[in-house]
Amino acid sequence: MxxxxxxxxxxxxxxxxxxxxxxxLALLLVAEWFIHAHAHFAWEEMPFFxxxxxxxxxxxxxxxxxxxxxxxxxxxTYYETDNDx
Amino acid sequence: MQPLLFPDAIAPSLLLIFGALLLPLFxxxxxxxxxLALPLLALILFLRMPAGDHWVYPLLDHPLVLGRIDAxxxxxxxxxxxxxxxxxxxxxxxxxxxxxxxxLVYAGGALGVTLAGDWLSLYLFWEVMAVASTFLILARxxxxxxxxxxxxxLVHVCGGLALLAGIVLLLEAGADPAVGRxxxxxxxxxxxxxxxxxxAAVPPLHAWLQDAYPEATVAGAVFLSAFTTKSAxxxxxxxxxxxxxxxxxxxxxxxxxxxYAEVENDIRRVLSYSLMNQVGFMLCGIGxxxxxxxxxxxxxxFCHILYKSLLFMSAGAxxxxxxKITCTxxxxxxxxxxxxxxxxxxxxxxxxxxxxxxxxxxxxMIISAAGxxxxxxxxxxxxxxxxxxxxxxxxxxxxxxxxGHDAGLKAEEPPLNMLIAMGMAAFxxxxxGVYPQPLYALLPYPVDYVPYTGSHVVGQLQxxxxxxxxxxxxxxxxxxxxxxxxxxxxxxxxxxxxxxxxYRIVDRGLNGLNRWCDRFLAQATAxxxxxxxxxxxxxxxxxxxxxxxxxxxxxxxxxxxxxGLGVHAAVAALxxxxxxxxx
Lengths: 85, 583
Description:
The structure holds two protein chains of two kinds. By secondary structure, chain A is mostly helical. Chain A is built from two helices and one strand; from the N terminus they run ααβ. Chain A is flat. Chain B folds into three domains: 1-239, no CATH class; 241-490, no CATH class; 509-582, no CATH class. In chain B, helix 5 (119-138) runs antiparallel to helix 6, helix 5 runs antiparallel to helix 9 and helix 11 packs across helix 14. Strand 1 of chain A pairs antiparallel with strand 3 (486-488) of chain B, so a sheet runs across the interface.
């Protein structure tokens, strides 16, 4: 099979990128042991605080956004059917 | 002020405004060169003018100071001039004088606000910005853009009136006419704060931004993304630095829009929410008010103008080429627009504050300032918002535009001038991220901050990459909210639906009253008056004839109504004489 010309259409490239990403995640967790942290708050002293915070915050943002859409979501023409300015 | 040669003879703000007004006289190459030259001349002025008050014009007993140059106004003037230049390059081939004139007048207004040494000239340029920017929305020439533009100008007129009221009260109270530090403890200061907060899109006064910017023209949105909110940030930094309310308003402002941005379908509206989130970081820094926090806020404004315009330019390029910009309609464009895609990713990395990109060297100053001042809750809110930024602006914008499902749109790279404009902004993003010292040297206070420490870099990368990891897992597992053609209600609901409701109430109430008045007063009274005018004089005369006697023929004439018109006039004249005598 001929290889696709476009970089991101090649499944091999996608696999390599994904593996590289996971490797970077692992590397960052390991790197934490080798750096000197100057924390302003007690919680920053917790191991892997930034990683856990980033993960949880992103999940929280996405689920809150889904809930928000259930409450505030309207059809695209919501404002256009009425006499709004 | 020493006698100066052109172009020093004219303030950069007036140079852009009057220069833009001459544009319709030019054509072709001269038109393009003139447009490119104006912001470059302004930039040269900002780089070489010494600190102090320049271009002072007396107006009655109140001197208008059009050029107060100090460290704060210089850095904003430089980035506004650079941005105007990038915007002109991006819009170079646009065949619409309305946009060219409006864009440059708007940029000139922003320079005027930045340079204003006194409140009155600040207000004048503030309104120049409001009016000129409205034309960048109108110029889209669609029904939706016209309606959005009307709402936009109404909101800004209200904000401008609050500002004007504050300024008038301030000057009436005998305060210094120079724009300077204010304390938020009096009515004039509160009104000025309110007026500036409207332009800074402080919630709940923010919805005009997400309402109007996505309806602007392709190039118009690029100009809009730079000037209104950041000139408001500048005025806040000059007048309300250290105001505690701004710490909390700013922090709330960073968080509120990230939820909206996550479920918004229009990419330019996602970017508008993300703009509000970034301005939140700046206002928070201004509220903290320490030298580090203010340096952070100012440098973040500088970096933000570059990467936000870059993101708006890449979204605009997609809109320009495909005519579409909603998540549900686009996707997979990395195949046909690889350069635009790469430039958009640079903007996304910069706004997400990846190390080696510009957002990192500026935003980390603000977050560090919150840490140093032991503002724990604020620090957590800003970090939470940072994770939110990577989710919407960092991943969602490039992913749903250039990757994701392929919408199969026919597309190609945009014209060269648009790519060059994006390239200049992208170069700025990376240059500042790698080598922040030249930017730090421009900041209002000396900088002894080191962004690239091991703990900063590793902590930030952990935050960002694990947020991406969460995004990846949710997308793979199908929990990520699907793209749908929908909108989400925001604060503009109150004046869009509320406005319609108010219209109905007024229609029923006041128009009902009007109809009642019309029926009972106007029509009934008029009928009665008409009848009186037609028959009254004859009856009065007839009564008089009957009372005092007279020839039979006259009597009969009155009784049968065959009396001439002259009698009416005579009675009317008699009536007037009587009134005159009695009065």
